[in-house]
Amino acid sequence: AGWAYRQLENRAYDSIILLGPSHFAPVNGIAVATEEAYETPLGVVSIDGELRGKIRASHPAFVSCQQAFSREHSLEVQLPFLQLTASGTPIVPLALHQPAPTLVQVLAETLVSILSESKVLVIASSDLSHYYPAPIAEKLDRHALQRILDLDAEGLLSGVARNECQLCGAAGVAALVQACTCLGNVKTKLLSYSHSGMITGDHAGVVGYGAVAFYR
Known about the structure:
Blueprint: H1 2-5, E1 15-21, E2 30-32, E3 37-40, E4 43-46, H2 49-58, E5 62-64, H3 67-70, H4 73-76, H5 79-85, E6 91-96, H6 101-117, E7 120-124, E8 130-132, H7 134-149, H8 153-161, H9 170-183, E9 187-195, H10 197-200, E10 206-215
Parallel strand pairs: 1-6, 1-7, 2-5
Antiparallel strand pairs: 2-6, 3-4, 8-10, 9-10
């Protein structure tokens, strides 16, 4: 994550949309956080109420759902990084439970509309493969990262469905990839890839991590 957040130095955004999985709440739709702010030991991160309302009203698939965020770690872990690199910028957290193509398309279209008229940063949070031996994990992760770098949202989702790759946040990542395709002239760059075995020395069962930048 540090590799990604380092790219935010000397940049300013009106708002930040956070996309992540809903690990614990089976949301039928795209969950929109209901909180007004989050607090960490570094301070308070405000919610952009105006942008949240705009997103919520853009399509019936967006549903206010506090349960999707009450135990969800995937987006909260981003907050300290944001407080250090984009202090004071309000956020809108969104979460999806399943990578349903229809929901991915709705989210992608909404992102295109927002990004076309506002200076908004979108961050999609996801781990890569979980608890495979390192050689298998690296193969799975290469497949996922290549689909992302190629801006191939359909290939990414089909790869997940066929167990060719694994991402807990596949829906949010695919929506961002699809939005970038629709916007056009978007470039991608792999900033970093690693897995837990590279740090712990235990390669029997690792978790993969990657950082990809999307830019114009």
